[in-house]
Specification:
The radius of gyration is 17 Å and the shape is globular. Strands 10-9-8-11-12 form a 5-stranded mixed beta sheet, covered by helices on one side. The chain has a 4-stranded antiparallel beta sheet with strand order 2-1-3-4. A 4-stranded mixed beta sheet has the order 7-6-5-13, with no helix packed on it. It folds into 2 domains: 4-73, Aminotransferase class 4, branched-chain amino acid transferase, N-terminal domain (D-amino Acid Aminotransferase, Chain A, domain 1), CATH 3.30.470.10; 81-201, D-amino Acid Aminotransferase, subunit A, domain 2 (D-amino Acid Aminotransferase, Chain A, domain 2, Alpha-Beta Barrel). The chain is of the alpha+beta class. It has helices at residues 18-33, 41-44, 100-105, 152-159; strands at residues 4-11, 14-15, 56-62, 66-73, 81-86, 115-121, 124-128, 132-136, 141-144, 163-166, 178-182, 194-195, 199-201. Helix content is 17%, strand content 33%. A hairpin with a 3-residue loop joins strand 3 (56-62) and strand 4.
Length: 203
């Protein structure tokens, strides 16, 4: 049976944006495993006495039942360049713990320690291998309408009207001034700018 992964930010011993994580976990369990019981991750995940000055990443593994969870100090990933890659018919609408398909697309990536792939599906830009993306046109932040994975932070910003959804093709990229990456661990405000000239066609 496939396992799924939920990554949750922990700050000062508190689970962040837990409502959004609960929604995604319960929806995934319903659709994949026909589970009816609703989980509240704040009741399931027992947080130990962690360093109050450190941000932690909680890795919560589950299927129909809880598999386990762990806490890891968060080390931000540095991404300076994005390489455009067509991902074909890749389906990652659920946050599977098995990321082998994504890792295969990253094989032989130039300067892998400072770059990532920016996936294109059916002619439209979606996500990087580990985050949703936002693009700034000088006035507003936008995110692709059809991501590979609907991230919890993406949903939070859409609901708060901080970012707007729209279809974005590679030919639309010159309309934008910069890109920032967002995920459960990475806020829009503390994400580094990636200039548009650092988005490169790769394969």
């Amino acid at each position: 049976m496939c396992q799924l992964l939920e990554t949750i930010r922990i700050k000062q011993n508190m689970l962040q944006h837990i409502v959004y994580h609960n929604h995604r976990v319960n929806n995934s369990r319903k659709l994949l495993f026909h589970a009816k019981q609703l989980w509240d991750l704040s009741e399931i995940i027992q947080i130990p006495d962690l360093d109050q000055n450190t941000i932690y990443r909680c890795r919560f593994l589950y299927a129909r039942k809880v598999v386990g969870f762990e806490f890891v100090p968060y080390i931000p990933r540095v991404v300076k360049k994005l390489y455009l890659v067509d991902c074909g018919d890749l389906n990652y609408s659920f946050k599977y713990s098995d990321r082998s398909a994504l890792e295969k697309l990253k094989k032989n990536l130039p300067d892998p320690n400072l770059s990532d792939i920016l996936l294109v599906k059916n002619g439209f830009i979606t996500d990087t291998s580990f985050s949703n993306i936002t693009l700034f046109d000088g006035s507003n932040w936008y995110t692709p309408s059809s991501p590979l994975l609907e991230g919890t932070k993406r949903e939070y910003y859409i609901n708060n009207k901080t970012i707007l959804k729209c279809d974005i093709s590679p030919s639309d990229l010159p309309k934008f001034k910069k890109v920032r990456l967002i995920n459960a661990m990475l806020d829009l405000d503390n994400s580094d700018d990636i200039p548009m000239e650092n988005i490169i066609i790769w394969k």
